[in-house]
Amino acid sequence: MSGPSSLPTTVATGAPQQAEAAQSQVQEMTYAEAIREALREEMRRDPRVFLMGEDIGIYGGAFGVTYGLIDEFGEERVRDTPISEAALAGCAIGAALTGMRPVAEFQFSDFMAIGMDQIVNQGAKLRFMFGGKAQVPVVFRAPLGSGTGAAAQHSQSLEAWFAHVPGLKVVLPSTPADVKGLLLSAIRDPNPVIFLEHKLLYRYKGPVPRGEWTVPIGQAEVKRPGKDLTIIALSIMVPRALAVAERLAEEGIEAEVVDPRTLRPLDEETLIASARKTGRVLIVHEAVLTGGFGGEIAARIAASEAFYYLDAPILRLGGAETPIPYNRTLERRATPQEEDIYQAARRLLQRRPL
Amino acid sequence: MSEAVPALSPEQMRSLLQTMYRIRAFEEKVDELFMRGEVHGTTHLSIGEEATAAGALQALRPDDYITSTHRGHGHCISKGADLKLMMAELLGKETGYCRGRGGSMHIADVASGNLGANGVVGGGIPIATGVGLSIKMQGLDRVCLCFFGDGAANEGTFHESINLASIWDLPVIFLCENNQYGMSMSVRKAMRCETIAQRAVAYGIPGERVDGNDVFAVYEAVAHAAARARAGQGPTLIEAVTYRYKGHSKSDQNRYRTRDEIRAWQERDPIKRLTAYLREHSLMTQEEIEREEAAAYQAIEEAYQFALASPEPDPDSLLEGVYA
Q1: What is the pTM of this model?
Q2: pLDDT tens-digit profile of A285-343?
Q3: Do A99 and B131 lie within an 8 Å CB cutoff?
Q4: Distance of CA A184 to CAs A56, A113, A163, B3, B64, Å?
Q5: By the CB < 8 Å criterion, does A352 face chain B?
Q6: Where is the Dehydrogenase E1 component domain (chain B) (predicted)?
């Protein structure tokens, strides 16, 4: 089960909760379609919004996310760039600084390393360095993650790099409804937002509210309630955790699955409340464990009042300490799969209360 | 100075002199304050390079944008900045342009189109390109002037950004202040090609090399580039050849160049050359020139007193401005 074709086509999602306007209808669509719908709706609504990136026009983007948008909005607003990631990032920042609302797409999040000075030293800091007298409302979209056989330079999960930088917001939506709602919020946000999409999620389907539908940045969601343990999962690990919860349910164990959705700002209250409720916490992400964001989540929980309710040490599951390999078997081995999450949950449950 | 008669009125020429004196007076004061330990951090002085900043900004309109560099006091003053707010920023005061958060390397006044000095060499070049895109998409009759140094011309951002601006015909003027050294590395050692201006050929845009110590030559080149940009003809690369008398920053011991070299450039001092021109053409008397100079030093002293009397930021305001 390593390619998108073998993944479930439908995954459970939390019921839409935060509609700002009345929802006329809900439609089943893929994660990629939900992104496209968000971009289309926001470009129709706000003439300042435009897209830029490599091969996003006629080609439709490396993952087809922007396919067809050039037909409606033209090449001025769906702007193909040369292969120049530093200029892409900086150009979007400059446009945002002077009244536009750019959404810049990096073909792979790994390539954000080329634009890192602009993202980290410029975009994230301009407002602060200028005494709070500037705004940089830019969104940097990028696919992350492994599972496509793209090997070490096209498969990383580097969200913790960005989450370490004050001035950036970092979002990792895991469902079609969330990706639409969070993208609308990201485009409307007056700050730089790093918007990370797992490439295996692009083909996942789920119900998505049509029209105006926003999910607030900085709000976690309990994707499945439970009382026996908490699984805090990021991005692609959310559907995997939900599948594991299903399996555990058959064995009489009720796992609560929580998706932080945003890493910065982090909704620690929801995470702490869940930890306190279940007393057992498993944190799962695809990013390499060392320095991964799970460490931050674990520390926040351990430093909170939930500490006194823990029945076992917090358990973290993350990527192996290696670049992502090409070989299919090795690639799967490098990141947590459903079975790994299941086994970890079982281990956590076996630990007796102190 | 340029052979051709500059297309500037006597008032504009006097204004240029005022700006250049203000830059020099400001930076001499900053140098003194650093020496006395009254300001911390570091600073990068452009003494000797005043003609480039003053001449370039004289050729633009008030609503045009600039992006600046770590050596940016001159750009800021030429853009019309309030000396008091600048000095307050250097002293880290709440009344400074950036509320004391930026300091010398990050002075900005976005409201007036000054999009900020930059602590990263080449860091402002992509941003200026984005500003050009913004101007074009909004249909505004503005340009963005992007200052950078010879050192930045070897950064990837220089090449990526000028290429992008050229394929999109963006209204950006890329103005390289070639002051001969990237910190200690001579431009002759840092690149094989003879000029930075010739790199424009690679991007299919005009490139021009001018005497950066000739304020009229800089003015003419930027005015021409701005006219092209406003006409939708895209960006221009200008290389202004100049020289900094002071070290790169506070830590510089001047080990990489000779006193003779510095003296030779001081003979071509941009302020001396402008005042000579003004006298020779009977546009200002020596007495008027001296009055202008004294007024600049007086204005800087007043700015310093304003900064001294200004409050420090409240420590509890630390997190303000991180997010909008």
Answers
A1: 0.94
A2: 999 999 999 999 999 999 999 999 999 999 999 999 999 999 999 999 999 999 999 99
A3: no
A4: 19, 25, 20, 58, 32
A5: no
A6: 19-315
What's the burial of B46, exposed, middle or buried (CB within 10 Å: 0-12/13-18/19+)? buried
Looking at every residue in chain B, the average pLDDT score rounds to 96
ipTM of the complex: 0.96
Residue A329 to chain B, least CA–CA distance (Å): 38
Query: What domains are defined for chain A?
Result: 11-209 (3.40.50.970), 221-349 (3.40.50.920)
Identity of the amino acid at A299: A
Cβ contacts of B167 on chain A, cutoff 8 Å: 82
Contact call for B123 and A117, based on CB within 8 A: yes
Record the tokens describing residue B258, joined without a space: 């000779």
Distance CA A158, CA A108 (A): 11
Q: Does residue B312 fall inside a structural domain?
A: no
CA B120 distance to own-chain centroid: 15
- Is B96 in Cβ contact with A86 (below 8 Å)? no
Full domain range(s) for residue B113: 10-307
Neighbours of A308 (CB within 10 A): 8
Closest alpha carbon within chain A to B66: A94
Sheet containing A229-233: order of strands = A221-224, A255-259, A229-233, A281-288, A315-319
Contacts of A92 in chain B (CB under 8 A): 130
Contacts of A122 in chain B (CB under 8 A): 118, 120, 123, 126-127
Q: Measured between CB atoms, which of B110, B118, B133 is closest to A95?
A: B133
Residue of A nearest to B132 (CA): A95
| DSSP-assigned beta bridge partners for residue A316 | A283
Number of H helices, E strands in chain B: 11, 7
Please report, for the domain that includes residue B116, its CATH number: 3.40.50.970
Q: Is residue B164 part of a domain?
A: yes
Please state, in angstroms and rounded to a whole number, the distance separating the CA atoms of residues A307 and A154: 38
Nearest CA in chain B to A91: B130
Q: Is residue B324 part of a domain?
A: no
Q: Are B156 and B144 in contact (CB under 8 A)?
A: no
Cα dist from A188 to A38, A170, A184, B130, B138, whole Å: 11, 14, 6, 19, 18
| pLDDT tens sequence across B26-76 | 999 999 999 999 988 888 999 999 999 999 999 999 999 999 999 999 999
Provide the number of structural domains found in chain B: 1
Q: What's the rounded Cα separation, in Å, for the pair B175 and B15? A: 21
Query: Is B52 inside any structural domain?
Result: yes
Give the type of residue at A159.
E
